[in-house]
Amino acid sequence: MLMPFTVEQLDLLYKNAKDPVYFMRQNGDTFDYMYVNSVCFTLFNKELVGTNLDESMPPSLSMEIKKQYLIALKIGKKHTYRDYSLFSDLETAMETELTPMEFGDQRFVLAVTKNVTAQKKIEEDYLFFESLVQNSVDPMIMISAEFMILDLNPAYEITFGVYKGQWIGRYYHELPDKQKELFGAGKNLLQKFSAQSKSTSMIMKRMKQDGTEAKFSVSYSPVKENGMIRAFHIVFRELTSELLLKNELKKTENILESYKEALNYAALVAIWNVSGTIEFVNDNLNELTGYKPSEMIGLNINEIGEAVISPKLYNEIREVTLQGAIWRGQIKSMKRNGEFFWVDVTIIPLLDVDGEIYQFLSILFDVTERKQLEEKLHFMAYHDSLTNLPNRRFMIQQFQQIKEQADERNEFIVLLYLDGDDFKLVNDQFGHDIGDEFIFHFGNAIKRSLRKNDLVARVGGDEFLVALRGVVPENSEQHIESVINRINESLDEGWTIDGHRFAPTSSVGIAIYPEHGNDFDELVKKADAALYLAKGKGKGTAYMYSV
Question: Which CATH homologous superfamily contains domain 383-544?
Answer without folding.
Answer: Reverse transcriptase/Diguanylate cyclase domain (3.30.70.270)
